[in-house]
Design goal:
The structure holds two protein chains of two kinds. Chain A is α/β, with parallel strands linked by helices. Chain A contains twelve helices and twelve strands. Chain A has one domain: 3-Layer(aba) Sandwich (Rossmann fold). In chain A, strand 9 and strand 10 form a beta hairpin. In chain A, helix 5 packs across helix 7. Chain A starts with 7 loop residues before the first strand and ends with a helix. The mean pLDDT of chain B is about 90. Classes of the chains: A alpha/beta, B alpha/beta.
Chain lengths: ~325, ~325
Amino acid sequence: MSAASPALSVDTLTTEIRSRGTWYQAVRAVSFQVHARETVALVGESGCGKSLTALSIMGLLPLGVGRIAGGAIALDGEAVSGRSDAQMEKIRGNRIGMVFQEPMTSLNPVLSVGFQIAEPLIYHRGLSRRAAEARAIELMHLVRIPSAAERVGAYPHQFSGGMRQRVMIALALACAPKVLIADEPTTALDVTIQAQVLALIAGLQKSADLAVLLITHNLGVVASVADRVLVMYGGDVVESAAVRDLFARPTHPYTSALLAAMPRADRSSAVIAPIPGQVPTLADMPAGCRFQSRCPLREERCAQRPSLTAIDAAGTHQVRCWVRGGASS
Amino acid sequence: MSDAPLLAIDRLTKVFVTRRGFPIPRTVSVRAVDSVSLTLGRGEALGIVGESGCGKSTLARVALRLLPPDGGGVRLDGEDVLAASPARLRQLRVRMQIVFQDPASALDPRQRIGCSLAEPMRVHGIARGAAAITRVRALLDEVGLPATALDRFPHEFSGGQRQRIGIARALALGPDLIFADEPVSALDVSVQAQILALLADLKARRNLSFVFISHDLGVIRYFCQRAAVMYLGRVVETGPADALLDTPLHPYTDLLRRSSPVPDPAAAIAMQLQEGEPPSPINPPSGCHFHPRCPHATDHCRAVAPSLVEITPGRSVACHLHAPATHT
């Protein structure tokens, strides 16, 4: 690894959520780095803390309900956690681009797409409106929206779901950020359109040296586009590995269970193995390993929280499990 | 199959007519379901695959006569569903039910679960009062919910549990056939697997037939013996689910298969930058609807719509590439 600092670095980030007057840890000491041209995926089911991790990085936690309780976030080696809202506003959309799941709710329905793509350029870069809109057309070309010059004045409802997501990507990349956070960017799209949008992101990533943090629940998407993967459960990173290692040797019981529960298009499977029960609410999370209530390998020591331990010589494949992790207590 | 099919859909067509456009609106018609023919055997699950707007949900609603058809026929056990009198239709509905994608909007938020499940029994004169409650208890047990669910409201349940309630309601009348419209699409992977396993178990135990609508090829492959692929209102390919996904014949089936992510880095999805999007069903392309996105399209494809032709026993495809005999 080069000495260059990672484009995005998250170090023992802990985020708390308030529910009925009590603060609960919803993201627990999560650490990872994303380098230029690299895609790191956060994967897990609803409520595992993956989106909260993204919101924490962007400083968009809902006021009074969410707060960062510890840890540090750095862009290009420069710490950004603990900055004021006004300072974060200079960073969001400028140094970090964001793409969300539902482009219809992220785009303003009463403003033309051209203006919305131009807006960050006017705000962050001080471009004139005319220059910004000319740049917006170039960006629409870049994300392969056909006849961009004619459609720059069109409104979000005049675009299909896939085209709206392209608009979101153009908007996110308008100020040429080095980091793109994509939170379920293709979940609402049909598979053929999903393939196009993922290909578009991968292409732009190469040409712009982007670091991409991809948040998804879909292990298939992870296998196709990610370089490294963090599997999350109940706010904990339970397994972290290079994508090949994760699928070749899924080690945490939750990772194996997710894979076994997934019906596959590429092979005939008479059996899928459901994971019993459901994710406990934050208030009901067991102490110690948070997966223990649904885990077939549960032992007595699981009442203590296992640490994330390397299971390979290089130290890049890490697992948070007493039984499978081979960790000594 | 030697015995008569349980469900036979014959050239079923549904056209929606709307007025759109500004400032001068004009009448446009959308052939949401365009001459679709399918059959389903007893105890069989038929998957309907396709992307948004291909007409798969409309097909289910027309076949159940929740929407009036514009042509074609539907037969349940040989009996004409579309011609049935209102009284007879009510009797037929006992035998065919539907499970929706989003049980939160399919259940009355102000009705207790027990009430929701007993209502169809009362309406169809199957059971009422204490007898109905006994049946509801058995139903809840069958779908894996505690009897305490009886007195609770839909909002007190998680998404997976609500889908179990939706399934219980579809089973309340003891149907032979269930239309399942994206029943697991809104659920997380682990819960999705629970519901799929429940449906598979019920199918085996009650010898149920399913028309299973999904956009997820993995789900279709797990649950269904046969599958039909729809594109802009037309069936473009049918066949055994495994064979159809292993060796797709229609270029659209092939595109769907190669675009579907699987958890294997060695089998990454095909991410060619093909620009095609599904065209608007309001103004579908001439000839074969898929030709603007098809790498093999010829002038013949642009002019003439291919018909669904059986290529090998049990496998049919609507594509000129596979039916040279239809050229004249």
